[in-house]
Amino acid sequence: MVAVKTFPMGGVHPPENKLTADSPIQVLDPPDEVSILLGQHIGAPAEPVVQKGDKVKVGTLIGEGKAFISANVHSTVSGTVKRVDEALDAAGFRKPAVVIAVEGDEWEDDIDRSPDLVTEITATPEEIIDRIKAAGIVGMGGAAFPTNVKYMVPEGKQVDTLVINGVECEPYLTADHRLMLEHTDEILVGIEVLRKALRVDRAVVGIELNKPDAIEAMTQGAERFPNIEVYGLKVQYPQGAEKQLIKAILDREVPGGKLPLDVGCVVNNVGTALAAYHEIQKNRPLIDRVVTVTGTSLSNRGNFLIRIGTPFARAIEAAGGMTDDVAKVIAGGPMMGKAVPDLSVPVTKGTSGILLLTKAEAEQRETVPCIRCSKCVEVCPVGLEPYLLEKLARVEYWEQSDEHDVLDCIECGSCTYICPSNRPLLDYIKVSKVKVHEMRRASTS
Question: Which residues form the domain of 404?
Fold first, then answer.
């Protein structure tokens, strides 16, 4: 019997629209060409270690993350490097990338491609962390923070619990749901891998109650792992945010400006646990991920295992193709995702979903004056005053924005979602956060 928990402050419950929850994972064949971004993670971009004309296999290192916060990048296909150039990212900026012409599907010889489950973990904690770094593993929930850095616990910090995020509270997205159903055992071994790396005796998994089959599968599987507990969580967005998840499961409050480490936790997504399993037990770096490709207009919407670097256009084609009434394509979900400028944008390690919205679904309602209803304050999960932060941003009062804790905003979009006046609250808050960061850096330089 799993306990039911949630976070106590704010949150909303948008329509779930989990249209692909019953859609098994389909393997998408590699395209003719991939564009693999060298900076598809938080931190410094990887530096290219290949050049035009080089032959690569699946799993060949093509970019080395040399900075402390960075991540290695591997070829996700076999073929010839066409160029080391630039490609559009989901935000519409041109970023360094390696473009590879696909020729066959030859993998590096030391990658174990067998389906056999490997449960015995022989690597030491230090080896696990080093290999996670070598494999280029990052947070698969969307943030794409280099995973190895989380496990390098600073001196003086004490960690006692590994928190695994299986919430997937964003509407439409079902990739993590399907992973927990179809790769239960691998995820659980991956959790044990991460737990060993962290040197803790306890791992907890949070899953929202709208995934009862996943809760059942993970709970039954965890019976073989005495150090793993599974918790059912109330369906409440943004339950999957780190601070809200920690509060829901462990009743620990992460203070503003602090990290999960400060309350004895490290948080990782179930997809990250699976990637850790693949590397430590199968010697397979991060070269693909499951992406939910969805929308009411798609005839074959579903969950697809896609090689990183595959263009969005290829994934959309596999899901049924574009129709005339599609007005917007979003990388991610409708609450926190970004509208992409071009369908040549490649899938990255952090691409959890590709969402197509019709003209009717994407229509923007007219913005009218604030009616001071305080709904945005009521739903803010971190206790901010979004209406005030928007006003401060409009008049460029960055110091006052800082004083009102704008940097604590987790950009969940609950305020914009609930606002009856259709104010672009989050848009202004995002601008304010950038300006406050710039102001702080200038004051310390």
Answer: 375-444
